[in-house]
Amino acid sequence: MSETRPSLSLVFPVWNEQENVGPLLDAAAVIGRGLGAPFEIVVVDDGSRDRSAEVIAHRRSQHAEIRVVTHARNFGYGAALRSGLRAARGELVFFSDADLQFDLRELGELLVHTERFDVVAGYRMPRRDPLGRRLLGLGWALLVRSLFGLRVRDVDCAFKVFHRNVLEAIPIASVGAFVNTEILMRAQAAGFRIHQVPVSHRPRRHGSQSGAHPRVVLRALRELLVLGRELRGTRGVEREEKLAA
Known about the structure:
Elements: E1 8-14, H1 21-34, E2 39-46, H2 52-62, E3 66-71, H3 77-87, E4 92-96, H4 107-111, E5 119-124, H5 131-148, E6 159-163, H6 164-169, H7 179-189, E7 194-199, H8 214-244
């Protein structure tokens, strides 16, 4: 690849997605080339124990746009996404999951809004997950909205585009499933403009989901409370500084 900074980075965290990651990277390469601007694909192998690393290496030999970040062991979805976002060099940074539940061809429908907004977030319409996961997602969105005023209808939808300055301005601490919510809460608190766009969603055909595991949910709740206290403290300091000025 050229050393010139790409216009767009496509970031994909991967953990045990041997059936899905090959078709995903093929599709990402085709779609990226169709945009007519320099792009890169950043794939993060978060300590996969199946053949994901082998499949990624094969696709890398076929698509020069692919860059690989490898974790020696599984650190968690948030940690993998954070590594990918940090490695991304594009002026615009997109991320999605590796489970083939999204249609990457709809990326263009997000990109058209990036001239006016700092963050463009997809929401699944309709969401094709099992009923339990849909109810959990709805309850989570309502909780975050009621406690912190985050008016995003599908906070955990892994189909988002950010301007580089957003990711440079906000820290990301989460190592688990809370990472989507954290990024949006921090972006809103920092005053960035968020726009929402409906995107298609498919049932998962291969592999397994872990987002609804009780351990994952409890960690997300703990991280939510910690971030909420941090943001409230920040706002309190800002008010005191304004009063003292």
